[in-house]
Design brief:
Order of helices and strands of chain B: HEHEHEHEHEHEEHEHHEHH
Distance between the termini of chain B: 24 Å
Radius of gyration of chain A: 21 Å
Shape of chain A: globular
Shape of chain B: globular
Number of domains of chain A: 1
Oligomer: heterodimer
CATH class of chain A: Alpha Beta
Number of helices of chain A: 13
CATH architecture of chain A: Alpha-Beta Barrel
Radius of gyration of chain B: 19 Å
Helix content of chain B: 25-40%
Strand order of the largest sheet of chain B: 7-6-5-8-9
Chain lengths: ~425, ~325
């Protein structure tokens, strides 16, 4: 199969290319030029041609939560959002703490042949924060990193040992930083808004204290650590300093935290119940700026499909999370426009930079690389609605909003897996 | 920002969910209407036919005796039919969702829901889902609001002090967990009270409480100085179990209201308490039963205020 994508604005953040041109694909890989006639020509006039998006945090809800979402529905949503590779956290039921589960997930994903799925293995058995998983076995089954998802390791000795053990094999550890005791019972940013609404708060120092502890352990063990979903200005500053020092760390932010703050809770809008909580406008601005200047390596959707019943509850009882696979590109473009960044820089944060964190070679338009490509219209506006979303999760604070950026084609390994013209 | 969900398109009170965001004229209107009902409650025949034929559902997801009873009395004096549902002990424990419970009651032709719930914001969720002719009154949600208590506190203050424009009000105790304090603070600031103080140990003051428009005091003596109104809050015994307070005794020593401390307030200061009181924990008996105390009149006014709220929302 030979495909020629013609007359697009071709942007490859990794090489800095941003020019009008064609992209040629043969046998599932990108190539300099086609020999012979293409089997299919895609007209990309007025459209952007870029590497497929890499989303380093998307919950697919399998196994265990199929009533919230299925692999089919969520991988459909991924490619509709231009996402060609995604990493899924281990907080399934049961958690991804056994090679058999990881193997099954990868096989199921492969059969569906849509986006590529990279499982993140559980760092501790059942994510309980007590005993280490068989990381080497899990890595053999396909895990690319190890994580606790949103579950804590309350015992610092276990955390230390887990980092040492993972470091033995060179496995990266992905952790969200939050002090378990300080965050206990909290559902919103501890500040004037939570005080007004009478919601139990999670103070900023729940994040910065845990981050301080973790950075000290990185210093001690040398293990490569990726920090998931920063939420505060204080954390961004700590990361900035740690990177200057040369610690082997990277970090990400969830796409909603670049745009929303605790004020968006309004009258107890449970769609704004997120983990970590939406914090102040100052925190939001620091996150947006940190992603611009590269202190924060990449942005992810933190896609969490939640069924309507679990959201139609009082704020504190509602299940946290927002759907995001189909909003990652439009919300990244919105952030880029606000920060006045070149399109190539914006796309880097969801392609090549995310690839670096994930440790994969995709996320670039290079001859010989797998042909994972997105073709999108950066200016086309669409209204976010339950019907417009393919994900089974319709839970988003952006319901009813008009967003710019519409995916026209998504290709994975040279196959057109999504198209909308 | 969404429109205020309590008001209808004409800016009238459709639900009472919180005092926050209510315009001054709406608040004064409720207090004026309550004044007209105080007379009714003192008559031999204590009934008016304003809600005849209407069904009031008392929907209590959290146990309560006093608030539920006063709502029941208020509804009956307005000639409504009252149905008490102690949901804490029934369908919720069988796994029925909050909105399912409400839809079922709605199918039984409810006109007015009086809701108490342990989670902040629960009455907002219900108000979003009821039919256009149904009304919701918040009877206390989590730490968020207890607007009828706030209104009866305002009524009591107005009754004894007339003008809010020259008052210094001190609210003492567990501000962190108190929906009563939050509602009263919003009401006082809306009605133009120049100085609202909150007094408590740092463990019982929520983050950024100054943003509500209050002055913070950790020293009770200092905070009471020159106060016209002293509002004591109930301290739940479970606060002693965590790391918020060491003991009831130590709390009483520093934040309990005694005659000695009260002497720092103005000579004509009034003392209020939302009840039920813990004598010897937040308030000394000599003060609770003393000449400054208006704690029992608060209860009486509470019925008139709840009659006013029910008749106003049901009429809009």
């Amino acid at each position: 199969m030979k495909i020629l994508i013609r007359n697009g604005r071709v942007i490859d953040p990794a090489s800095g290319r941003d020019a009008a041109g064609d992209v040629a694909i043969a046998d599932g890989r990108l190539c300099e030029a086609l020999s012979g006639k293409p089997d299919r020509v895609i007209d990309a006039t007025g459209l952007v041609v870029a590497p497929g998006l890499i989303d380093i945090a998307a919950r697919l809800r399998e196994p265990g939560y199929e009533y919230k979402a299925t692999l089919e529905s969520e991988l459909d949503a991924a490619v509709a959002g231009g996402v060609t590779s995604l990493a899924c956290p281990p907080d399934t039921d049961p958690p991804l703490d056994e090679p058999g589960l990881v193997d099954m997930l990868r096989r199921r994903a492969k059969v569906l042949s849509r986006a590529r799925v990279y499982p993140i293995g559980a760092l501790t058995v059942k994510l309980a924060g007590e005993r280490l998983t068989e990381m080497a076995e899990l890595a053999e089954a396909g895990c690319v990193a190890f994580s606790q998802a949103d579950q804590p390791i309350a015992d610092t000795q276990v955390l230390w040992r887990a980092l040492q053990y993972a470091g033995t094999f060179g496995f990266p550890v992905w952790l969200r930083v939050e002090d378990h005791w300080l965050a206990r019972g909290g559902v919103a940013h501890d500040g004037a808004l939570a005080t007004r609404l009478g919601l139990p708060g999670i103070p900023v120092f729940a994040e910065t204290i845990a981050l301080g502890v973790l950075l000290e352990l990185v210093r001690a063990t040398g293990t490569r650590v990726h920090l998931c979903r920063l939420s505060s200005a204080g954390a961004v500053e700590l990361v900035r300093r740690a990177k200057v020092e040369g610690l082997p760390i990277s970090c990400d932010v969830g796409i909603h935290h670049l745009h929303l703050s605790d004020l968006d809770l309004g009258y107890f809008d449970s769609h704004c119940r997120l983990v970590p909580p939406l914090r102040s406008q100052r925190d939001r601005d620091a996150l947006a700026a940190g992603l611009s200047d590269g202190t924060i390596d990449c942005v992810c959707s933190d896609h969490t499909p939640v069924d309507e019943d679990q959201k139609q509850m009082p704020f504190s009882e509602a299940e946290p999370g927002a759907t995001g696979l189909e909003l990652l590109l439009p919300l990244a473009l919105k952030w880029g426009a606000q920060q006045k960044l070149p399109l190539a820089t914006v796309l880097a944060r969801v392609t090549s930079d995310a690839a670096r964190v994930l440790g994969v070679h995709s996320g670039r338009l290079q001859a010989g690389a797998p042909a994972d490509v997105v073709v999108f219209d950066p200016d086309a506006a669409w209204r976010v609605s339950a019907e417009a979303l393919r994900s089974q999760g319709k839970n988003t604070p952006y319901i009813g909003y008009e967003l710019g950026g519409r995916v026209r084609y998504t290709l994975v390994a040279g196959n057109v897996v999504f198209e909308q013209t | 920002m969404q429109n205020n969900p309590q008001l209808n398109e004409n800016g009238e009170l459709r639900h009472l969910l919180s005092i926050e965001g209510l315009p001054r004229n709406v608040l004064s209107g409720i207090l004026d209407t309550a004044a007209s009902f105080v007379g009714v409650t003192e008559r031999e025949v204590k009934k008016v036919p304003l809600l005849r034929g209407k069904s009031v559902f008392n929907l209590f997801f959290e146990p309560s005796t006093r608030t539920r009873t006063t709502f029941e009395i208020a509804a009956k004096r307005l000639s409504a039919d009252v149905i008490n549902l102690n949901v804490a002990a029934s369908s919720q424990t069988k796994g029925e969702s909050l909105l399912d419970t409400v839809s079922n009651l709605s199918a039984m032709q409810a006109d007015l829901f009086v809701v108490r719930h342990g989670s902040s914001g629960a009455p907002y969720l219900i108000a979003q889902h009821v039919k256009p002719h149904e009304h919701v009154i918040n009877a206390g949600d989590g730490r968020h609001a207890h607007p009828t208590q706030g209104l009866l506190d305002l009524y009591t203050i107005r009754h004894y002090k007339q003008d809010f424009g020259a008052l210094r009000v001190a609210i003492v105790g567990d501000i962190l967990h108190s929906r009563v304090a939050r509602s009263l603070i919003h009401g006082l600031t809306t009605l133009g009270t120049p100085e609202v103080r909150v007094i408590g140990p740092k463990t019982l003051l929520p983050a950024g409480v100054e943003a509500l428009g209050v002055k913070v005091f950790n020293d009770m003596q200092e905070g009471l100085r020159g106060a016209d109104v002293v509002v004591m809050l109930r301290l739940q015994s479970e606060r002693m179990r965590g790391a918020l307070l060491p003991s009831a005794q130590e709390f009483f020593k520093h934040y309990g209201l005694t005659a000695q401390k009260l002497a720092l307030a103005k000579p004509d200061a009034i003392v209020m308490h939302p009840g039920p009181m813990n004598r010897g924990v937040e308030i000394d008996s000599s003060v609770a039963d003393g000449p400054h105390s208006v704690i029992l009149p608060q209860v009486t006014f509470g019925i008139a205020v709840r009659m006013a709220v029910m008749s106003i929302v049901a009429g809009n």
